[in-house]
Amino acid sequence: MKKLMVLLCAALCLMFTGCDSAYAKNEYNSDKKISASTDKYDSTGWDLKNNFGDMTITASAFSGRQTIWSSKYDNSEKSTATAEISLSAGKAKVVFIDDSGAVKTVAELEYSDSQKEVSKSIDVVYTKGTNRYKLVGYDCKDVKISLSI
């Protein structure tokens, strides 16, 4: 009986940990889910440092979508956003979301032996209202993100 309980507990643990990132993979390309005001993520070892618009984020593991910056604007303003992403596994992107909910990818990386990091810059327009940046990804390991806005 004791062995059966241990096996049942182990199976339940595997089932729940195995499903942790399934939602993140299914929602990775959904602008509707990404632009939602709510975040949904699982992470370990998360650390975010913000130095006046220059952000660095590290995590040993990440899946989901998490707001990493948000600000309200009284008027439209043009700017440039630069993101660098480094991973040892998984797929991730940094996106910009304006007040209307339009999603624009700043940088995106799917880890492979030949591609372990990426750096990109895009022009953005902060619209009147709330503008945000989010990290979106699944099955990510050894995450390193730099974002300059």
Low-confidence stretches: 3-19
Return the domain count: 1
From the N-terminal CA to the C-terminal CA, the straight-line distance is 59 Å
Major pleated sheet: 8 strands, antiparallel
Strand content: over 45%
- Summed over residues and divided by their number, the pLDDT gives a mean of 89
Count of DSSP E strands? 8
Structural class computed from helices and strand pairing: alpha+beta
Q: What sort of overall outline do the alpha carbons produce when their principal axes are compared?
A: globular
| Percent range of helical residues | 10-25%
Proper CATH architecture: Sandwich
Instruction: Give the count of helical stretches.
Output: 3
CATH class: Mainly Beta
- Enter the CATH topology name: Jelly Rolls
| Radius of gyration using CA atoms only | 17 Å
Order of helices and strands: HHHEEEEEEEE
Task: Describe this structure as you would to a colleague.
With 149 residues, the protein is α+β, with helices and mostly antiparallel strands. The protein has one domain (2-148): Jelly Rolls (Sandwich). It has helices spanning 2-19, 22-27, 31-35; strands at 40-44, 47-51, 54-73, 77-86, 89-97, 103-110, 117-126, 129-148. Strands 1, 2, 3, 4, 5, 6, 7 and 8 form an eight-stranded antiparallel beta sheet that branches. β5 and β6 (103-110) form a beta hairpin. The chain is globular, with a radius of gyration of 17 Å. The termini are far apart.
